[in-house]
Amino acid sequence: MQFEGDLYRRAALRDPYPHYKIIRDMGPAVFMPKRGLWAIGRHDGVRAALRAGDVLVSGKGVGANGLVNGITSPITLTSDGETHDRRRRVLIQPVMPGPLKELRPRLEAEAEALIARHATGDTFDAMSSVAAHLPVTVVAELVGLNEAGRRRMLSWAAATFNMLGVLNLRGLAALPKLMHLGRYVEKLGRADVVPGGWADRLFEAAERGELSSGEARAMVIDYVGPALDTTILASGHMLWLLATDPQAYAQLREEPALIPGIVNEAVRLASPIRGFTRHAASDFELDGTVIPEGARVLVLFASANRDERHYEAPDRFDIRRNPRDHVGWGHGPHSCVGMHLARLEMELLLESIVRQVGALEAGEPRFAYNNVLQGFKNLPMRFRPVAPRAAA
Questions:
Q1: Pairing relation of β-strands 30-32 and 284-286?
Q2: Distance CA 368, CA 350 (A)
Q3: Strand 380-385's sheet: what is its strand order?
Q4: Among the four 35, 172, 189, 272, which has the fewest Cβ within 10 Å?
Q5: Where would I find the H helices in 27-80?
Q6: 3 state SS for 2-22
Q7: Whether the predicted pLDDT of 59 surpasses 70
């Protein structure tokens, strides 16, 4: 079966879900001749593909074009097997339960102060002012790049994700920024990062012999994009969902215990990463369809998260659904290293909002066009403060 559409056209980036449904309905795996890619869009198929790291490999790149896949950087995202496991063990250390427990009070205080500043009834941009606050002010600091690096993290991340798509105008325009990121990390040394920060820990691991010096420098890239954009986009979508469903927000205020499930539901619907590609190291059979050896396979997280075969009314925001098996943070050996941190940030943000905000109001969002990321660029909002209690 062949899908004749193009998922990278502007209209498809803006609303990909009708195209995803066609792909899901056509079969477990579908060839897209316009881009020379196979696509997997069903929930079960996506999870199976993400578990098949020995067949659908990442070591030959996870982008949708040969140029970016030909850039050999020794990072976790584009590695397999023992090499991937070794790098991931180092990369994940700062976001393990122990460090996150220590970080929680700071994130709580930041979230509480942030919402207090915005719970005034005035209009603000929820993306830059609220959704981005914890990632940009706390997490970027924890990564521990020098000032020049911190200033460019968001720009580098957006460019990286654009280049991981096809070489359309967006992808080509991102190339200079991606090259700048490459030059930055190539020159990076331990003296250029904040002592005790996440980047510094990579250099410590190199000194212990757990990483090479080249791996330590390059793996800074593993922190740049996932630490910021995905959490920002998912948080913004969560705010929009609650603002456009006042009844759901009222129920949430009555039952704050729903917060963890709402975060899962928001990430499922937001799917900030549309999907990554894999290289078929050998034939890969999926429910009777064989993807041939050597093929480039687009694994569509965002499609899987709206699969009607798996989720009832998948386009509906259901605050009681709690879809723990969503693939918004991936699945299998390459699941997002920072997903527990992202979940913590979103939960604490929502806890502070529930305590301080009586009602959310949203204007018309402005969409951010990116070959791999999806979400809002701007989202005008108002936080109506909780009404003071009447005197007894």
A1: unpaired
A2: 23
A3: 123-125, 380-385, 357-362
A4: 189
A5: 43-51, 66-69
A6: ECCCCCCCHHHHHCCHHHHHH
A7: yes
Q: Output the CA torsion sign for 306, 53, 216, 161.
A: negative
Contact indicator for 372, 162 with CB cutoff of 8 Å: yes
3-state class (DSSP) for residue 310: coil
Specify the residue for token string 């820990």: 201
Hey, which residues does 384 pair with through a beta bridge? 359
Alpha carbons 222 and 320: distance in angstroms, whole number? 33
pLDDT value of residue 392: 45
Share of the chain above pLDDT 70, in %: 98
Residue pLDDT, tens place only, 251-284: 999 999 999 999 999 999 999 999 999 999 999 9
- Secondary element (H or E) of residue 106: helix 97-118
Alpha helix stretches (DSSP H) within 208-300: 213-218, 220-224, 229-243, 246-254, 259-270
Q: 31's torsion region: left (phi>0), alpha (psi -120 to 50) or beta?
A: beta
Strands 56-57 and 123-125: unpaired
Question: Tokens for 214?
Answer: 């080249």
CB contact set of 130 (below 8 Å; sequence gap of 6+)? 114, 115, 118, 124, 235, 236, 239, 349, 381
pLDDT tens track for 174-185:
999 999 999 999
The reported pLDDT for the residue numbered 389 is 61
Taking residue 96's Cβ as centre, other Cβ atoms within 10 Å add up to 11
Q: What are phi and psi of 310, to 5 degrees?
A: -115, -40
Number of helical (H) and strand (E) elements in the chain, helices listed first: 19, 12
Distance (Å, rounded) from C-alpha 207 to C-alpha 210?
8
Q: What is the mean pLDDT of the chain?
A: 95
CATH superfamily of 10-385: Cytochrome P450 (1.10.630.10)
pLDDT at residue 355 in the model = 97
Q: Retrieve residue 202's tokens.
A: 């990579």
What is the predicted pLDDT for the residue at 72?
76
200: tokens are 């510094």
Q: CA 341 to CA 131: how far, in whole Å?
A: 14
